[in-house]
Amino acid sequence: MSKFIQLNKRTGETKSHLNQARKQGRIPAVLYGIGKDTMSLEVNEKEMLDILKKNPRAILQGKTSDEKVMPVVVQNIQRETMSGKLLHIDFHHVNMTESMDSKVTIHFSGEAIGVKSGGVLQVEMYEVEVRCMPGDLPSSMEVDISGLAAGAQLLVSDLIFKDGIEVLTDPNTVMIQIKTVHAEIEETA
After folding, report:
1. Cα→Cα distances 101→18, 29, 98, 125, 134, Å
2. What angle do CA 26, 29, 30 make, to 5 degrees?
3. Separation between Cα atoms, residue 84 and residue 126, nearest integer Å
4. What is the CA radius of gyration of the chain?
5. pLDDT digits (tens, 9 = 90+) for 9-26
6. Cβ atoms within 10 Å of 82's Cβ, excluding its own
7. Does residue 91 contact residue 126 with C-beta atoms inside 8 Å?
8. d(CA 134, CA 136)
9. In the chain, where do the E strands start and end?
10. Pairwise CA distance, residues 134 & 73, whole Å
């Protein structure tokens, strides 16, 4: 939770001003969750892209122009349809004393023995929804799949999180499976 993001007050609200800000590498943003007020802000595009690449669900230290620092998370991102460029970001203030719902990205490591013996790896899900205290939120989770044989599957219930993290995704949901080539041929026929 140590990554800082500078949250600058937005100086204009017109469409032309917002487009000009984007051309200069400043992305319009809004901060919610601090009482009833919302704050209209701008963030540095390069800085934001770096954060999103490393951990899009990280709890960030938002530093406002008046030097106030507060924990925030990225709630929503609007992107240009064709280019994928950032258009707008919604931040939400995090109360560090209350549990929160978020998603955790799952990274699969190792080569499954079922794949080595001719099976086909099929990933169904890369993230699970969890509820925990903000300080306990993992940035991601590494899962070794090298023990999965052909015909085997990994369920959400197979994931082991530390105490204090409640998994909200259905425990019977299949995350990954190793299909046998024979079953793959029958399915397509």
Report:
1. 31, 22, 10, 18, 9
2. 155
3. 21
4. 21
5. 987 788 888 888 889 999
6. 6
7. no
8. 5
9. 4-9, 26-34, 37-44, 60-64, 69-79, 86-93, 100-109, 120-123, 127-132, 140-144, 153-155, 166-167, 174-179
10. 10
HSE-up of residue 76 (Cα within 13 Å, Cβ side): 8
Q: Give CA–CA dist 10/1, Å, rounded.
A: 25
Q: Locate 172 and state its tokens.
A: 């019977």
What is the distance between the terminal CA atoms of the chain, rounded to a whole angstrom?
50
CA distances from 116 to 15, 54, 96, 110, 148 (A): 55, 31, 45, 11, 10
CA distance linking residue 122 with residue 159, whole number of Å: 17
Q: What are the pLDDT digits (tens) for 138-180? A: 888 999 999 999 999 999 999 999 999 999 999 999 999 999 8
